[in-house]
């Protein structure tokens, strides 16, 4: 950033616009992603034991965490989306973007209502098999062809998967997982490799 200050709102707006810009090409400005993860890290370092959601009510935020953890679970090689701060990242973006608020807030409400209709309880109260069953139904766009009532859930889950990936791969954990070292320069240019057979 070239010597001028940029407001928190503009950074978050830039982040969300970059994410909205593309189902074809998703581009989140690196500075904006770093800024968002920095805000989250600062809040956690301020002595608070947990992140305080900016948009989602506590129950919806717990559902968001559970969904992010299911989309990108932790494994032996790396932490998952929750450890990388993806739920916080998504909440921070959503707090500044009415379109995200509608898609994500409405999507979580849809998920809970659908679980109540099918299982008699909200998503978090469902057993793991029931959670897997409902997520399997909304994880694939082709399922909307046989059951149009899944359309909203399918759109919501696809959007959430994209944001979870953005939150994970722009975090410190995600960058280390990729082995990304940033833009580096060569101290010596080796030239073009020889053409085989010439």
Give an account of the 3D structure.
The chain is mainly alpha-helical and 198 residues long. The protein has one domain. The chain is built from ten helices and no strands. The protein has helices at residues 8-20, 30-45, 58-71, 81-84, 86-95, 98-119, 128-138, 143-146, 151-169, 172-178. Helix 1 crosses helix 2 (30-45) and helix 6 crosses helix 9. InterPro entries: Gluconate_2DH_su3, TAT_signal. Pfam families: Gluconate_2-dh3 (PF13618). This is Gluconate 2-dehydrogenase subunit 3 family protein.
What does the average pLDDT come to? 84
How large a portion of the residues is in β-strands, by DSSP E?
A: under 5%
What is the string of SSEs from the N terminus onward? HHHHHHHHHH
Number of helices: 10
CA radius of gyration is 20 Å
Helix content: 55-70%
Poorly predicted sequence stretches spanning 5 or more consecutive residues = 1-5, 17-25
Structure class: mainly alpha
Protein name: Gluconate 2-dehydrogenase subunit 3 family protein
InterPro entries: Gluconate_2DH_su3, TAT_signal
Care to give the gist of this entry?
By secondary structure, this protein is mostly helical. It has helices at 8-20, 30-45, 58-71, 81-84, 86-95, 98-119, 128-138, 143-146, 151-169, 172-178.
